[in-house]
Amino acid sequence: KAGVTQTPRYLIKTRGQQVTLSCSPISGHRSVSWYQQTPGQGLQFLFEYFSETQRNKGNFPGRFSGRQFSNSRSEMNVSTLELGDSALYLCASSLDGQGVYNEQFFGPGTRLTVL
Amino acid sequence: SQKIEQNSEALNIQEGKTATLTCNYTNYSPAYLQWYRQDPGRGPVFLLLIRENEKEKRKERLKVTFDTTLKQSLFHITASQPADSATYLCALESRAGNMLTFGGGTRLMVKP
Question: Which residues of B touch A49 (CB under 8 A)?
């Protein structure tokens, strides 16, 4: 079974631009979560999608948004990029994102650098 | 406010010894607690999940305990090996919602 894939792996943008990151979950997984990881703040939850609906949202500004398609693939978008958005963005999928079925399978991440 | 604390200092131990990592939390009522391993430049990898009504869980050389009274989980690696060197993260899922909140992680270094 193929693991979680994320594209692109590396991205360099400048302040004010926007960016879209893509995630393909493990086949059969219906829950997709996005996390931001930085050295200072650690791994922080952005949002979770289940059956094309945003089910949970972390404490991030509205510049961060996402969506999930009918095949469970997900995208996240960051508009008006700021220097502080430089981070490793991780996508994770799970069977249904709850309880004992909430084991997260992480992708390799997208390293975003904002100049 | 909710807080999950892991020892931010690296834990250095000798090969063959037991490594014990701590995860403490406050203002939280977790229904489940998970442990992950993360190697540099890679996404975390799931290791173990323990429910709030379970005291202990084992998997091969790994053991997790969960004390909801002390609000603490301990993660043990017995007969540690240099290949166990990595950052270990604990994550809590509350009853209120199914999102995971991660601790800051503890870096483990096992010396041969």
Answer: none
Residues B15-59: tens digit of each pLDDT? 999 999 999 999 888 888 999 999 998 999 999 999 988 999 999
Chain A contact set for B32 (CB, 8 A): 99-100, 102
B45 phi, psi to nearest 5 deg: -120, 130
Hey, which bits of A1-115 come out as E strands?
Answer: 5-7, 10-13, 19-24, 31-38, 42-50, 53-57, 64-68, 74-78, 87-94, 105-106, 110-114
Q: Which residue in B93, B4, B2 sits closest to A92, CA to CA? A: B93
d(CA B56, CA A65): 38
Q: Encoding tokens for residue A38?
A: 């930085």
pLDDT given for residue B98 in this prediction: 66
